[in-house]
């Protein structure tokens, strides 16, 4: 290594340093120097909505902490960098992003282990926390001396973004009018630190600096960004405005955001420093939705005894949002779909919860940032915890406990299934080998390698652990700790950088724990060790016996700590025993070997006098004790009732005990647990207990909702002995129907929300009832149909859209498989009578939605699900075309997701009927994410099962998707990895041919491998999937079948004028020619490139670090490729998708391609720099020659890309000279 | 086809008119006879004036004029007579009428005795038309004792007595709900069927595309608008149920937008939601006191001023 490094160093000198800006020299950059940015200016002076491009510059003020600072590393992805100047001197720079393409030319390597380690290494190579970056700037030697004097350096970088796929999202509706009239807007987005996607910076949460942000936008638009808006100034032509923002509080680049659009502005009436922004026409909704925000503010400020840290707060509601809520310094970006009017019930609490989450993250996450990725859990934990406190205050203790239980269950389920979630990973010496989570198919070393689902569970666990800490040290101390963190940070924030105080604004696990022990004086070490430093949860099995003689309860608590995702728990556990004389808490010690615990009982077994029984909360109630065991004073027992261990408890007690627990225990968690347990006891007594709960107004509505479903299950188990009308029918009639005519439901008022939720749920649960033939009883079906028929909302001030949607869901639930006569085609005539009625309702509802759309199109969503269910059960012909049309761009996102879900489901159900797979592009990252995760959740096949879909083409396609197709979005890449894992597992997919030893490839063999990917496109009747493969190196996506025609128009002329290699394969179609030509070129590369692949493997890390790539050549230019099964018929969606394909990169890379190929064939591929560099080591003498070509190419390339002179050090762009 | 049909209708008409001539009612005969006499009068007057021939249309017009003149004289005379509480017009009524219409009555005797007048045969005697008997429904009331018997009779009772012609409306709750529900369903079904018939559809079945037609989905450029904004129907309901409650709340939050945002659509939307609630002037001044950077006016570029 040293030798190599030295050699390259010498080379560099020969080449007169950084004459070739693309020359990559990673080996010499081993010296760790992390200069500190103290101030950064971001100026975006042109945002073009038509072209979806951005031009601007940044200026970083860097405080060198080492003498002789000669290189500066910054993060930048996607950006095209025109020039870099350091203190007004032109500086050479290198741009290399190894995450663009994770594995190089590993046409044979298809195992996920390999990919994961390569990906982790790639991310590490540019990890700003370790001082790395994609952009390496060489400080001009003139300034080296200055470094000695520790003077600040000003690094000025001009950059542009063209059709960004990540970081910034443009929404440009295709309607008439100016951009403002069209409601076009753009906003920044990303998963974790993703700011590098839209401007060069040190993209780390721990690198704080102050900010000056300037955005010049159209006069009709508003630019909302972090910090205080100092002034807004017109440009000279008065057509544009410049928004000047200043953020004096030191903030990480990752917490900087921007949104620009023709927003409507609403100043919060109670707090004038808070401003809300929404898209045109939505102002009334914004007013209503935000009318509550000030209370959340007050709540947090009160509990934290700390003012909101920023001087202003902005909320922006955008379309096609990446996530529902994302928080940045002093602003939050929300999905516009959170807005609602006063008529909407269901969305109201959800929106408020999102606001509360956003605000909690303002304190912890934005204002207080983290020291390193390993400390992320503290921030997520605290913000989640205080959000929980808000929930408790606003929605009540029941809701809070229900939420905690829900989160705990979710997390426990995930950990047991996938293996543990580790909050605070420590990496021994930074070596990959000490992987703390070997059970996972991804590395948790970086946020960007995490699976989305894992990250969600991570957040979940973080706040649950915070709650455990609270249990331990009391809430008072907890809040004091938070206050301390905040006040330290706010003191620090007002200091100058030179005071070295800024690090107080960063929280680390260590500092957090230290301040806990300072404030509370308690040692929470064991707790942290158990839940934070260690992954996995505890799994308890409990059972008991009552010893009458000794009047002792013999409790046995066993643990399963051997299966995946479990750990051993040693320590205290609380057990609550409800006896006849009252409720008693016992704290038991779980120790290594003791399973049995004796708990003395307080009451004698049989009471003689009838007296009230005291409950835990002091209440005294009358109980009918006839059901219980005469010998035992025990009513019910609960293990760890406060959920103070992250655990799953399976406890055995008699059915009557569960029933008592359900009826009389006042804790909603206990009630929900007993409901779950009662499913196993289908007896009349259970039925009665559940019915009583259903009728009880005082009971928490979610418990009652749960009881509905449990009752339905019990009723089904008791089918033969069930007496009376179908379960819940008479109850529903009594509660919600007219007194005079019990078959007609009252007109809707929805005044009592509890009743409303119950009224919604009951029919859905009732529809799950089945009779002896396993059909939904006729009574029930008619009942639901009547509910729909008599539904009358005219006098209601609330919308009934959710209610109607749930009635459709009820119809869906009532469906049972059709009696199928083998392989009969489903026709209208042989439609079953009941199904006909159901279909009638669904058709009418769906059609009415077109005329009077419901809020968030809830009814359409339910109808689509119903239709899929009808198809699935064989009542109507299974056909995905309807769903495909609803999945198109241009429908409301909920509708699209529902439709896509149906399509995904279709692929699973119908894979025997030879569907072909079509790659589609979706412009909305959220939708793509949804598709991938739905495919992962409901995979067409898994690694265990054989499937005709599981073939090499699919493997290639997915591989390419995660290797290079999703480099613009961390979340998508991880989704793709997840899907790959679900489909094929960790090792090489079984459908692939055995890899040749040594992986020596020649052209012939290469062809043989590639052939299957080409084949399916030639005939529409093949059962193979059409693969849209990403030609990684060239940055051109060969169009899949359906896209060809469309692309033709764009690419056609270029394609046909392109040089010959394609014709070797004698394809008539120009577009095919084009495609194959690209392939050939990549073959060539591989052929030349990898004669010794084993060697390549050895130099793996080298490769990763050494992969230069000009900004212009990003495969980022591809939108994500999505795999969706469909028929050979092309859905119109594809056309749509094609149109949304950024077409500009194609011709330009073509131009490049053709220029290069016009040279001699050896140079044919020379824009693939990584090849170069690999080769470089072997054939050094070629260097100069190549690099010259490269730089020429680059120039040409950039000319093709934008109108500005673009080569590394040429003149300024016209827009800047303006 | 159409032509034939047309012919048929024409024939029809002709037949009908023919029938009318053949079996015209006595009233019609009477009128025709008088009309003919009038025509003769007109013709003779024309001859008197020295015309040798006249177009039929002219004669017809003059006839019409003379007829309306005479009718007007009759109507007025009758009115005068009734004005003086009589039922038969007298000579004086007629004289007053003629005077009133601008005719000098004194010239009449002279004119009647003019030399060149022609004698016209009296109109043929036809039976005066029988006034058809009005439908008598119920017993006519006799005059009460204080009204002399020569006064006109009471009209038919149905002309002044309320006669209910509808059934008692059903007020049974169940039936009303039933009706409302099925009515709504019918309207919805008819409407959706109509929309499906007239527009593009999607079908769930391949064999019968008309069964269960689904109105084809139409992607919209801005899908969130229709999905989030309440429909007009819902807005109406909202206004009906509690318009007063809302006003108080939203009033104070209303104005800041208008300062910066000149999107007319937004304002319209506002006024729709807050119809009827007038923003008081006081509020405006309060709003202007809000110091929010986004509400501040945009500055002019400085450099230009220097120039």
Automatic annotation (TrEMBL), chain A:
Domain Transcription initiation factor TFIID subunit 2 TPR repeats intervals: 655-1009
Compartmental location: Nucleus
Bias-annotated ranges (Basic residues): 1162-1189
Top-rank taxon, per record: Eukaryota
GO biological process, one term: RNA polymerase II preinitiation complex assembly
Keywords: Nucleus, Transcription, Transcription regulation
Amino acid composition bias (Basic and acidic residues), ranges on this chain: 1190-1199
Main location as per UniProt: nucleus
Chain ranges of the Transcription initiation factor TFIID subunit 2 Ig-like domain: 536-653
Gene Ontology CC annotation, any one: transcription factor TFIID complex
Pfam families: TAF2_3rd, TPR_TAF2_C
Stretch list, region Disordered: 1031-1071, 1147-1218
Biased composition (Low complexity): 1202-1218
GO MF annotation terms: chromatin binding; RNA polymerase II general transcription initiation factor activity; transcription cis-regulatory region binding
Family per record: Belongs to the TAF2 family.
Protein's UniProt name: Transcription initiation factor TFIID subunit 2
Species of origin: Oncorhynchus tshawytscha (Chinook salmon)
Gene assigned in the entry: TAF2
Automatic annotation (TrEMBL), chain B:
InterPro entries hit by this protein: BTP, Histone-fold, TAF8, TFIID_su8_C
Principal subcellular localisation of the protein: nucleus
PANTHER family associated with the record: TRANSCRIPTION INITIATION FACTOR TFIID SUBUNIT 8
CDD domains (UniProt xref): HFD_TAF8 (cd22918), TAF8 (cd08049)
Organism: Oncorhynchus tshawytscha
Protein name: Transcription initiation factor TFIID subunit 8
Domain of life: Eukaryota
Bromodomain associated domain ranges (all copies): 30-107
Localization per Swiss-Prot or TrEMBL: Nucleus
GO molecular function: protein heterodimerization activity
Family the UniProt entry places it in: Belongs to the TAF8 family.
Chain positions covered by the region annotation Disordered: 239-272
This protein's GO CC annotations: transcription factor TFIID complex
GO biological process: transcription initiation at RNA polymerase II promoter
Pfam families registered for this protein in UniProt: Bromo_TP, TAF8_C
Keywords: Nucleus, Transcription, Transcription regulation
Keyword Nucleus: yes
Biased composition (Acidic residues): 239-251
Statement: the UniProt record of this protein carries the keyword Nucleus: yes
